[in-house]
Specification:
By secondary structure, this protein is of the alpha/beta class. The protein has 27 helices and nine strands. Among the domains are: about 160 residues, P-loop containing nucleotide triphosphate hydrolases (Rossmann fold); about 80 residues, Helix Hairpins (Orthogonal Bundle), CATH 1.10.287.1770.
Amino acid sequence: MTTIALVGQPNCGKSTLFNQIAGYKSLAANFPGATVTYTKGTTYIDNELVEVIDLPGTYSLSWYDDAEKETVKALFSMDIDVIVNIIDASMLIRSIELTLELMSLERPMVVALNMMDEAKKKGIYIDVEKLEEILGIKVVPIIAKKGKGIKELLQNIKDAKKPRKRCVYSQKVEERIKELSECVDKSIKGEHWPSKLLAIKAIEGFKPCEELVGRTDCSPILKIAKGELEDGMVIINQRHALCMNIFEQSSKVKKPKKRSAESYIDDLLMHPIVGYVFMFLIFIGIFYAVFTGGAPIENLVMGLFDDIDGYLATIIHNRLAFSIVKGTVDGVGAAMGIALPYLLPFLFIISLLEDVGYLPRIAYLMDSTMHRMGVHGTSVIPFVAGYGCSVPAIMAIRILKSKKEKYISAFLASLVPCSARTTVIMGLVGYFLGYMYVIGLYAFNLLIIMISGMILKKMLPGISPEMIIDIPPYRLPTIKTLLLKTWHKVKDFVYLAIPMLIIGSIVLTLISYYQLNGYINNIFKPVLSGFLGLPAALGVVLIFGILKKELTLIMLYQALGLSSISMVSSAMSPTQMLTFTVFVIFYIPCVATIAAINKELGAKGGLFVTLGTTVLALILAFLTKLFAPLFI
């Protein structure tokens, strides 16, 4: 089966093109040995089944984050028959640089010149035939979001040929590149890198290539070339000049008739003061829409499953069988209570903001603040999402670049009090101690998140490079594209979190059936009673809280042998209430969140967050026990 790889720089419309070609028959997968995902699907070209792979965006064949690294590795290791290079026609000068590098791979290739309508709005008019002649590659103009030019592109993919031309530098540069590439060709066997490209990247100082060449007899030649070509700056400058020449030969720029509406909108949304006000209002709007609108749906869903539990009790008389079936039904109910009311609408709105072009603007506004915690402005999305539900918050980290940022963001997002933990805060501390203590807890939580981020920034290996982000033009996505993107994001929850919730629910119902509560409480007694000064009976409550955090409040009074939540103050002191609540805020995320972390970071990432949050919760709860009496 023919394999087609879609390659392009970020925000070039690559995923939109993929959805037009194979969106309805697609699935997400991990690169071997990596947590970075790519999307693949199938389609037909003239009755022939072909596989289409949507690789992560990359600016060049030198990688500076996990996504770019996996794209370059895929180009060299996967059996790819045709490369489709998607170019943003409105940013031709910058986009063409990746094209020149892809040409050096010497594989059949087609250029999809996307966003022709955006280029026209900017006053850029491209002579497609001239550009095709200069590059020596078939160039097909398309408007992916409207489906224009797709049929012609597919036909040209079928007839794709290797580039007829190559990026040609000055005579001096070509001589040095040729000398090193010939040596590399003789010395290095079994590498997927073409020898000329490997030589160029080594001269430019790209570490993986430089180290590979440096371990061979070509090292002296590399040293001379780097010296004469100023560590590759001569090559880079000439490539930039070549891109400019290609643009000037193939394009004309006319002054747009009037200032675009986009520039007026950006004056507000990216203003150093007003921009934050709009961002805050937009987040409040999202928050209100998702979680206010989701609450009635959650109540409806959970009410339906409560009715199912009641019906099952009338038809299943064997207690063990009833416990297992009830655990299964409750697990499905818990999953549906998250996915339908909260996860689906939230992911749809995030996909909308992403495709419209607002997410990069948020990242720009928040970068300086977030960078102090070892992450970038984009991480504000998971943090804000966490106040509603931790699952979409964790799933939102896939938009981040480096593995270090993902680890830090996942850990910090899991510390944000979700709506379930808010129930505990309001129902216990708010009810018995007053809302000033609630405000104090949220302020304390933000302080801990900031300090934790600074510590993790120092502890975790890797770098957090300065953010270089494109601010794309505003675009109105199609409903089809938004629904597909939402499904790609939510199906991971369906496939991973729901089974874990069902299994967890069955285990917990069996614990209750076999009356193991006392044994569990005895296991946790040294920590709860001895270390934190809490009633030993709360051990099983915290275990059930891993399934759903709301259960810690619902089961609290039952575990203490009380008839209602209003009587908790007779069994727990104010200090114990604060200690318990602080522990609930910070300890192990719920089962669905752990499943999402495992999906995004792997099992090691899930273990890191689980152990890290548990240790943090123990320390903070212990400190609360010591110092809370001073404030109560």
